[in-house]
Write a structure and sequence with these properties.
This protein is α/β, with parallel strands linked by helices. The chain folds into three domains: 85 residues, SRP54, nucleotide-binding domain (Four Helix Bundle (Hemerythrin (Met), subunit A), Up-down Bundle), CATH 1.20.120; 199 residues, 3-Layer(aba) Sandwich (Rossmann fold), CATH 3.40.50; 155 residues, Signal recognition particle, SRP54 subunit, M-domain (434 Repressor (Amino-terminal Domain)), CATH 1.10.260. Helices cover 56% and strands 8% of the residues. It is built from 22 helices and eight strands. The protein has an eight-stranded mixed β-sheet, sandwiched between helices. The C terminus is likely disordered. Bound molecules: guanosine-5'-diphosphate. Guanosine-5'-diphosphate binds next to helix 5.
Length: 480
C-alpha cells in the first residue's frame, strides 16, 4: 500500500531539492504535484483540498525563513510530513479500558472486511499485554463465522462464547448480552463482540448492530474497514457513523496493493481516529496504528521505531544479554549464536515486511530486491545449521568435504548451499571481530542471505546533517 504515492512524493521532493532557493512558484509547483499524487491515490477530494490549502498557507507564511535555512526543500518536506501525520490522526489512540471491568469492545463493518480475523488479532494483542479477553460470537449470519471464531480463539488460547451455531440460526442480541454476563461471571476483563456484516450497507444490518450496541453499551465501538476498497470504504464509514456510530476505525488489509486513499481520508471524513491496522492474514499481523510512523513510511523515511520494537520483542532479554557479554569479552561469535539470531528473526515475522520498514524501501532498486527476497531462505539456512554437530557449530574450521556433504544430506540441501553459508558466516565473524577492535563498519545480521543493499534515502541524509533532534520518532531513531 502507498507505494505509488510514496514514489511520487519522493520524486517531487527530489526535484524541489535541486532548486536551492525557493520561490512561491516552486511551492505552487510541488503543491500541484502533491495534489495530483493524492488524487491518484484515491484520497477524498475534500481531504486533498484541505491538505493543499494548509500546505500553501504554512509554506507561504514562512517562505522567507525557509530560504534562510540551509536546505529550504527539506523544510517544506518537514511541513508535508507533519500535515500527513495530522490527516492520519496526529497521534496513536489506544483502547480506553473501562473503570469497572469488563471493557466491552464491539466490532462492526461490512462482511469480508476482516472482522472475525480482527477479533482474533485484537484478542491476542490484548492477551499479550496481560489482559484476559473473551470473544463473543454474535455474527450468526455469515456462513462459518462462529466456527472461524472458535478456531482462531483456540489457536491463541482465548475462550470463545458461542452458544449458537450461526449460519442464520440464533439471536445475536441475546448472544451478546449473555456473553457479557458470562464474562462478568468468569472475571474476563475485556469482551470482544464480533457482529454480522452484509455485503453492502442495509437497514437491517444497521438496525441489528444498533440493537446489540444498545443491549451491551460498549466502551469502544470499532468500525472495521477493508483498506483495499478505496473511496467506497469512506462512504460506507459515513453510513455506519450515522446508522450505528463508532469510536475508532480499524484498517485491515494494509498489506494489499490498493492505493491507500481510504487510510488517508477516513479520519478527516469521519472525525474518528484509526486505532489499529492489520497487515496480513496471520494473528500477529496487527498493531496499534501510529500516524507519524505511517507518514514516515509514505515519505520514504521508513519505520525504524516499529522495527526496533519488533526486534526487542523477538530477542528475549537473556539471549540478548548473553550475546552482549560474549561480544564484549572477546569470545567468538559461533554458529550457535547465529542460530539463536535466526530464531529471533523468524519470530519477528515476514522478512519482506520487516525490510519494508527501512528507509528507502519503496525506492525502485530496493523494492525490486525486496520483491525477489526468498522468505523460505531463513528456514533453509536454519536447517543447515541444525544439521551440524556442536563441535562444527563451535568451530566451522573442522568442516571438511565429507562433513559438508553429510550436512547437505541431513538438511536436504546442496553442498554448495552449505559452502555459501559457511563462507557468509566466516565473513560475518570477521566483521564482528573488526567491530570489536574498532576497525570495522556496520555489520548487518549475518543471518540475512542476499541482503538488499540499502540506499540512503534523501531524508536520511537530511537527518544526518541536522544538529537538532527531530520531533518525528522515526527520524529521531534514524538520527540516533
Ligand atoms: P468478516 O466477514 O468481516 O468477518 O471477514 P473475515 O475475518 O472472514 O476476513 C475476510 C478475508 O480477509 C479472510 O480471507 C481473511 O483471511 C482476510 N483478511 C483479513 N484481514 C486481512 C489482512 O489484514 N490482510 C490480508 N491480506 N487478508 C486479510
Amino acid at each position: 500500500m502507498f507505494e505509488s504515492l510514496s514514489a511520487k512524493f519522493q520524486g517531487a521532493f527530489a526535484s524541489l531539492r535541486s532548486k536551492g532557493r525557493l520561490k512561491s512558484d516552486d511551492i505552487d509547483e510541488i503543491a500541484l504535484e502533491i495534489r495530483a499524487a493524492l488524487l491518484d491515490s484515491d484520497v477524498a477530494l475534500s481531504v486533498v483540498d484541505s491538505f493543499i490549502g494548509e500546505l500553501k498557507s504554512r509554506t507561504a507564511s514562512v517562505l522567507d525563513d525557509l530560504n534562510k535555512s540551509t536546505n529550504p526543500a527539506n523544510a517544506v518536506f518537514e511541513i508535508v510530513n507533519s500535515l500527513l501525520t495530522e490527516i492520519l490522526g496526529g497521534s496513536a489512540r489506544r483502547i480506553r479500558l473501562a473503570k469497572k471491568p469488563p471493557t466491552v469492545i464491539l466490532l462492526t463493518g461490512l462482511q469480508g472486511a476482516g472482522k472475525t480475523s480482527l477479533a482474533g488479532k485484537l484478542a491476542k494483542y490484548l492477551k499479550d499485554q496481560g489482559n484476559t479477553p473473551l470473544l463473543v460470537a454474535s455474527d450468526l449470519q455469515r456462513p462459518n463465522a462462529v466456527t472461524q471464531l472458535q478456531v482462531v480463539g483456540e489457536s491463541i488460547g482465548v475462550p470463545v462464547f458461542a452458544p449458537e451455531p450461526g449460519n442464520g440460526v440464533g439471536d445475536p442480541v441475546k448472544v451478546a448480552k449473555n456473553g457479557l454476563s458470562f464474562a462478568q461471571d468468569k472475571l474476563h476483563n475485556i469482551v470482544i463482540v464480533d457482529t454480522a456484516g452484509r455485503l453492502g450497507v442495509d437497514a437491517e444490518l444497521m438496525a441489528q448492530a444498533k440493537k446489540i450496541r444498545d443491549a451491551i453499551n460498549p466502551d469502544e465501538v470499532l468500525y472495521v474497514v477493508d483498506a483495499m476498497v478505496g473511496q467506497d470504504a469512506v462512504r460506507t464509514a459515513q453510513a455506519f457513523q450515522e446508522g450505528v456510530g463508532f469510536d475508532a476505525v480499524v484498517l485491515t488489509k494494509l498489506d494489499g496493493d490498493a492505493r491507500g486513499g481510504a487510510a488517508l481520508s477516513i479520519t478527516q471524513v469521519t472525525g474518528k481516529p484509526i486505532m489499529f491496522a492489520a497487515t496480513g492474514e496471520k494473528v500477529s499481523d496487527f498493531d496499534l496504528f501510529h500516524p507519524d510512523r505511517m507518514a514516515s513510511r509514505i515519505l520514504g523515511l521508513g519505520d525504524i521505531q516499529t522495527l526496533a520494537e519488533q526486534a526487542k520483542g523477538a530477542f528475549d532479554s537473556d539471549t540478548a544479554a548473553k550475546l552482549e557479554t560474549k561480544f564484549a569479552s572477546g569470545e567468538d561469535f559461533t554458529l550457535d549464536d547465529f542460530l539463536s539470531q535466526l530464531e529471533a528473526m523468524k519470530k519477528m515475522g515476514s522478512m519482506t515486511k520487516l525490510l519494508g520498514m527501512l528507509p528507502g524501501a519503496n525506492s525502485g532498486a530496493m523494492k525490486k530486491q525486496l520483491e525477489q527476497f526468498d522468505e523460505g531462505e531463513l528456514v533453509k539456512t536454519q536447517s543447515i545449521v541444525q544439521s551440524m554437530t556442536p563441535l562444527e557449530r563451535h568451530d566451522p574450521k573442522v568442516l571438511n568435504g565429507s562433513r559438508r556433504s553429510r550436512i547437505a544430506k541431513g538438511s536436504g540441501r546442496q553442498v554448495s548451499d552449505v559452502n555459501s553459508l559457511v563462507e557468509r558466516f566466516t565473513q560475518a565473524q570477521k566483521v564482528m571481530k573488526q567491530m570489536r577492535t574498532g576497525k570495522g563498519g556496520i555489520a548487518m545480521p549475518p543471518g540475512l542471505p542476499n541482503m538488499p543493499n540499502l540506499p540512503k534515502s534523501p531524508s536520511a541524509q537530511l537527518v544526518n546533517k541536522k544538529k537538532s533532534r527531530s520531533g518525528n520518532p522515526a527520524k529521531r531513531a534514524l538520527e540516533s
